[in-house]
Structures are given as structure tokens and as C-alpha cells.
User: Fold this.
Amino acid sequence: MTAIRYAYLDAAATAATLLREPAVAASWGAPSALADFGVSGLAGHLAWQVLSVPRVLAEEVPAAEPLTLLDHYARARWVGVGIDDEVNVGIRDAGEDIAGGGAAALADQVDHTVDDLRAVLPAEPADRLVHIPWGPWSLSLDDFMVTRMMEIVVHTDDLAVSVGVATPPVPLPVLEPVVDLLWRLAARRHGPVALLRALSRAERAPATIAAF
Assistant:
């Protein structure tokens, strides 16, 4: 199994552990740190980064060249749109739907899915492609794993901050591909000079180099 898939499983297990935190259940009906996202919906959205993987693995892959990661984000409808845009409203609604059974049921579902993926992912070939139905387009499985890891790392921080617990540490094998993706997206959005200054020159740093 590739290193990216091992890293994804570590990230997924971290998400599963956070979803079982008592503070998540205690704050279930409260607003989250994200505008217009409740804690329950945010938890559902985080869970989706695990629950979506079996669905994607089951999709038939069309005979077409897969996109690169950067092309994937260039086409993603949610990138660069406002929080009230239809696609973002849909993401929030889907998170609430996924969390509809409550905190304990959601945590159980994610735990079981992580266990299943530990058995499934090693059997997938190194050159495996997957089709993303909400694209719709295809990616390599490892690139898809990177997209899920990025979502997990970002949203575990969001959820931890929302419920008042420490953000889980990010293992280096997870952090490296996620940061590599984010700096490439940030450089494309803001330009390489802005990124360089943000990382090396506080006196000339731009106000933001956010990737999205």
C-alpha cells in the first residue's frame, strides 16, 4: 500500500477519535467556528471525508484521463464562492443530513468505515483511478486521498476549536502532502512572491495567503 494511503488512514483515525470526544456531543446543537455551520453539521462534514471513500471506490471509472490535483481544485465549484452560494449551502445541508442520527451514531459509523478501509485500501492497485461523482471527473486514488486528508486536517481544527478542545496533532506523513497541496494552491491564487514573503519576511507579508 502506498505511503499516502497509510497517511490517509492515520488522518481518518484522528477524525474518528475527535468525533467521539464528549465535548462534540455536548456542543452538538451549538454554532461552530465556521459561519452558518452548526457543530453537528461540521461534524457531519468532517465525517464525510471518511464516509465518502467507500462510495467513490465503488464508482465505475469512465475511460478518460484523470485530472491533476490543481486542475481538480480549479474546477471545484465551491472554490472562491460566498458562504451563501448554492454549493456551500448544499455542503452545510449535507453535513446536517449526515449527522442526523446524532453524535454517537456518527462516531460509530466513522469508526466502522475506518476499520473497513484498513482492509480495503491495501488491496487497491498502485495505479488505481477513482471517479468523483460530485465533480464529475476522475483522479488517481492517491490524489483523492490527499484531497480527503486536506479536508480532515482543516476540519478537525475547525471542530476542535468549535467545541473547546485541543486540535489533534498532525503526523508528518499527513502534514507534508497537505501542506504541499495548500502552498501550491496558495501560490496559484496569490502568486509566488506573496507566498515567499509570508513565509520569510514578516515586514512585507501580505494580509493573507489562504489557499481558498
In short: Strands lie at 129-132, 137-140. Residues 141-163 form the longest helix (23 residues). Residues 3-168 form a domain with the Four Helix Bundle (Hemerythrin (Met), subunit A) fold (CATH 1.20.120.450).
